[in-house]
């Protein structure tokens, strides 16, 4: 009978192998490439900062009871968020994220079924 340490080492090795296999999938490689492009895109970074600033301004204006300024800041934040959501890299990134999540969900379900069959 295997000891707990042997079993733990075997599980760790299997997880590492699964991780390597998943990283080799074209869907995961495409996702990683898109994630890097999003991280390095100045337009996206600028939009994120502007959204954050507009949201912070809205909170501050609300705190000081400046309703018109708060509404204007919220409107600006909404417009910036829409621009962010429509950016081609963001759209591609989110689509690829869904695809990779589907793959991971499939793998997770297969592992769960395998464990249930052992019981």
From TrEMBL:
Signal peptide extent: none
Identification of the protein by name: YlbF family regulator
PANTHER family listed in its UniProt record: REGULATORY PROTEIN YLBF-RELATED, YLBF FAMILY REGULATOR
InterPro entries registered for this protein in UniProt: Bact_com_dev_regulator, Biofilm_formation_YmcA, Com_YlbF, YheA/YmcA-like_dom_sf
Pfam families documented for this protein: Com_YlbF (PF06133)
């Amino acid at each position: 009978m295997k000891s707990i340490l042997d079993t733990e080492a075997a599980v760790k090795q299997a997880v590492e192998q699964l991780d390597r296999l998943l990283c080799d999938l074209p869907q995961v490689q495409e996702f990683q490439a898109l994630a890097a492009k999003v991280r390095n895109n100045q337009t996206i970074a600028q939009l994120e900062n502007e959204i954050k600033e507009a949201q912070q301004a809205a909170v501050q204006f609300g705190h000081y009871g400046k309703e018109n300024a708060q509404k204007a800041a919220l409107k600006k934040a909404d417009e910036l968020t829409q621009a962010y959501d429509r950016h081609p890299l963001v759209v591609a990134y989110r689509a690829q994220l869904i695809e990779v999540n589907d793959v991971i969900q499939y793998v997770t379900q297969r592992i769960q079924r395998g464990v249930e069959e052992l019981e």
